[in-house]
Amino acid sequence: MEGILPLYKPRGMTSHDCVFKLRKILRMKRIGHTGTLDPEVDGVLPICLGRATKVAEYITDAGKTYEGEVTIGFSTTTEDAGGEVVERKSVERKFTREEILACLTNLTGEITQTPPMFSAVKVNGKRLYEYARQGIEVERPSRQVTIYEIDLLDGRQIFEGETVSFRFRVSCSKGTYIRTLAVMIGEALGYPAHMSDLTRIKSAQITLEDCITLEEVEKLAAEGSIEKVLRPIESALYYLPKYEINDKLIEKVKNGVALPIPQGFLDEKGPIVVETPDGTALAIYQAHPLKEGLMKPTKVLKIQETE
């Protein structure tokens, strides 16, 4: 069995919990997810089965879309609704729609984020949340991420109250912390804030509407029809350039042989999908680091049948 399972992750489970449960349901070990979702966040979690685990990083690299809610008026230790209150400041003025839209516009594009202490980022070989649980504060590495678009999902013209909450939709690059984005929105408006709700609605080309639940997976597995909901490995590579080869080269590619960089791909810095005339992805190639004019496989997706 191989392919990409469009799973809906429920709240209350970690991404690893989902993988663990799927291994038992599907009775297979080679399963991996494509980007951690926090336990209190639900939504799209593409799961790679079998050889599809080789392309998990390309799903992660394709970007994600979330719908969430920011609450202005207090911040928390975890930057979301599950943490303890760190700072509280009653909102004593009104925010206009234009003011909030301007704030969201200013946070669009490439921005610098510092991961929250309660996150899986490693510092000196230890995850930040491990330090946080011990009450140890460590210096966190900042990272550049890209916010492609933020939309305000609230029709009000004036936002007021002791706390102010509003919903938003954000499309972003991998590595973006939406919790931290909510805190940054609050800072731009002059108040402590946190992310009070979040759902991932899209990962690569997989949307919330495409996803099935663990209960549905269990039912399909019992019926022996799980394959009908799996997406092919090629669907994870939709945004990469494709190089179609003839039958004579297919066996060489399956054996991991370096190839001349074809005309039209000389300026490609990123990966290239080498595929058959019928669109089957055989391997992912990149420019050879030592031999000019050649490209070598970084991942071979189809190997000799005898192997």
UniProtKB/TrEMBL annotation:
Domain tRNA pseudouridylate synthase B C-terminal, residue spans: 179-237
InterPro entries documented for this protein: PsdUridine_synth_cat_dom_sf (IPR020103), PsdUridine_synth_N (IPR002501), tRNA_psdUridine_synth_TruB (IPR014780), TruB_C (IPR032819)
A Gene Ontology biological process term: mRNA pseudouridine synthesis
Residues forming the catalytic site: 38
CDD domains in alphabetical order: PseudoU_synth_EcTruB
GO molecular function per UniProt: RNA binding; tRNA pseudouridine(55) synthase activity
Reactions catalysed, as given in the entry: uridine(55) in tRNA = pseudouridine(55) in tRNA
Record bears the keyword tRNA processing: yes
Coiled-coil residue windows: none
Job description of the protein: Responsible for synthesis of pseudouridine from uracil-55 in the psi GC loop of transfer RNAs.
HAMAP family: TruB_bact
The protein's name in its UniProt record: tRNA pseudouridine synthase B
Organism: Bacillus yapensis
Phylogenetic classification of the source organism: Bacteria, Bacillati, Bacillota, Bacilli, Bacillales
